Amino acid sequence: MAKQNKAIGIDLGTCNSCVAVYQQKRVHIIENEAGSKTTPSMVAFTSAERLIGEAAKNQFMLNPQNTVFDIKRLIGRRFKDDTVQRDLGLWPFRVVRGKKKKPMVEVEFKGFTRKFSAEEISCMILWKLKKTSETFLKAKVRDAVITVPAYFSDAQRQATRDAATIAGLNVLQIMNEPIAAAIAYGLDNKSNSSSQAKFILVFDLGGGTFDISLLSIKKNVFKVVATDGDSHLGGSDFDNNLVDYCSQKFKQKYNGDISRNPRALRRLLTACERAKKCLSSAMETVIELESLSEDKDFRITITRTQFEELNMELFQKCIKSVDKCLAGAKVLRSEVEDVVLVGGSTRIPKLRQMIQRFFRGKELCNAINPDEAVAYGAAVQAAVLIGHRIDLTVMDVTPLSLGIDVEGDLMDVVVPKNTSIPTRKEVLYTTSLDNQAIINISVFQGERAHVEDNYYLGEFTLSGIPAAPRGEVSIAVCFEIDGSGILKVSAEHKNTGVRSEIVVNSEDVGGLSKEEMERALIDAERFEVEDEEIKKITVKRLDFEKYSYKMRERVRQEKLKGLMDMDEIENIEKYVKEAIEWAEGHDDAECEKLDEKMQELKTICNALVWTSCTDSDDSQGSHSDKEESEVES
Amino acid sequence: MTSSCAKVILLEDPASKGRKLEEMRRNEDIAKACKKVAAVRVEVDKLSEQVSAVETTVSGRTKVADQDFVVIKEMLMVQLLKLDGIEAEGEAKLKLASYRHKMHSEAEHVVSSGNITMQNVGYEHSQ
């Protein structure tokens, strides 16, 4: 085997860790043995063995006292530190004071009570990630770049470095997480030419922590200017809010209390987590739990708007942190050049919208999977440090499938949609006639079975095929998309080497507007009349809901201002409240009914809108239009 | 497209591929759901047996079986969470719902009839 010199990038997270490597001009996120791209940062000790990652997580419920997680909150800290003392109560495992005032976790392992330092636990996780990479690369791995939060002290960085060293890794660099994320998006190269410092904001909302970092970059050198955030805010907080809401609804419906029923709560939590993920793409989802408590079935429809309303306070808290961070550094929001999203919770559409609005409609960097962005950047940095020349300009995916037409005017997909580019795919085809000398190859883009329904990109011919019976000739058709989205399709006769190719403009492949339009068209065609109707009602209902929640917010603001007549306000408040309740209780309301209700509500709220629309960025009329197009696209 | 240029042909049979794809996918989905449900069913049955086995062996002396029972309960819970996560469409959905109802109440019954005073050590720490 050729001697391999590969360096890995490790994102050692509080809840989950991720490892990546740069090879063949691409960054690969390495999957663990369970096929998952992130590994839980957990270590468990049992009477028989030590478990790390997925295995530790799976047995957590059986052995909570001896399952260690959140170790990143302990590393490099002293036992007496405020944060350590505060977190102590939250963990099921024991933390005691060790030598040199270090916190140590105390667990039962193979029948003995043993103490482990945070470095030792981190080391186990790093060792596991190293093993995972070695299995993937089929070679020994030594060199690594490891990321830590920007606010980590020297002691915390040194402790992380020590942990890696014990795990048998040669630490090339301890790197700041936000900088790694910025590098993943190639932001270091982007500002190469300018001598003026540019600002980048990294918004990282993960499983359990929330970090805001403001970076400046000047001549390829990154600097952390300011940080902010909340050490205990993350995805699980959104889940918990949803759980609370559901158990309230359950109480209303059956007058039964599930907060004392751990089995029911756990089922509800699992379902809520699933619903949250679903609402990042769907406008509404149904939580259905049969026989949840005392033989009673629970069914509830959660709309995206409801979910957003439940978590609005948390979202606003996040935005406030951004504001605080910028204010602290005396940087204007207009001075921020790029905004990078990291962490799974940044998939929530409302949050993205709020961040975007805060930065006055700036495009956000979100093309890379937010769970993997940090490891991605670390892998790039690792490759640079061992002397690779990196040429990563665009990290993108194909928005639609690409393929050619085959007999029967059918579309045969060569590059499926959402394939990350650059990519190269080759498929073998043959002739359909005896002694066929010329083959015509048409390239299409789209998801429909028939090529005429898809988007035509171009065609070319391959001639000079030697005479042969049908089906005996083999033609290799190859699709190549480079980093900037340029598609090259080539066809080659395997035996003679006769070749022909076509280059399709990047605008047609990677560009957005045309394809998005095309996709909307295709999707619209697919819906049958019935679906159309359901969609119409859903949009109406969502509009109605949005409007009533918005009015509720207005009423609250108006109350604070105190400019309007109190009686009038209270009257409107009552109507809005009734409207919200009505919408919740009537998932199946008809079109006309909804129109009627909407009209009614609008008439009542008119007084409110006229007085307060002056201070808002969008007036009501355009608002509802905008929402409608958003739902349809 | 010139008339002398014949179309390319796929090695597999392309005509049937396009037409049947939709239906195949639908059937596959139902079959997959059934398979998953069956797998859960087998596990739950096994665990229910274990519960009654524990019950008969302890017969009064509860302390010994505490840990065993925690393990069985947890394994049962994992299976039921799996069951909650199975998705289906149309007709299969109704069947699945009634089936889930049955299995969850059964499981509830199994656990409570275990009749062993237990402290739910693990459950308080659900994330």
UniProtKB/TrEMBL annotation, chain A:
Keyword terms of this UniProt record: ATP-binding, Nucleotide-binding
Pfam family, one: HSP70
GO cellular component terms, semicolon-separated: endoplasmic reticulum lumen
Annotated spans, Disordered: 614-633
GO MF terms, alphabetically ordered: ATP binding; ATP-dependent protein folding chaperone
Similarity field: Belongs to the heat shock protein 70 family.
Record's protein name: Heat shock protein 70
UniProtKB/TrEMBL annotation, chain B:
CC annotations in GO: cytoplasm
InterPro entries cross-referenced by the UniProt entry: BAG_chaperone_regulator (IPR039773), BAG_dom_sf (IPR036533), BAG_domain (IPR003103)
GO biological process, one term: protein stabilization
Domain of life, source organism: Eukaryota
MF GO annotations: adenyl-nucleotide exchange factor activity; protein-folding chaperone binding
Domain spans labelled BAG: 37-96
Keywords attached to this entry: Chaperone
Key word Transmembrane present: no
Protein's UniProt name: BAG domain-containing protein
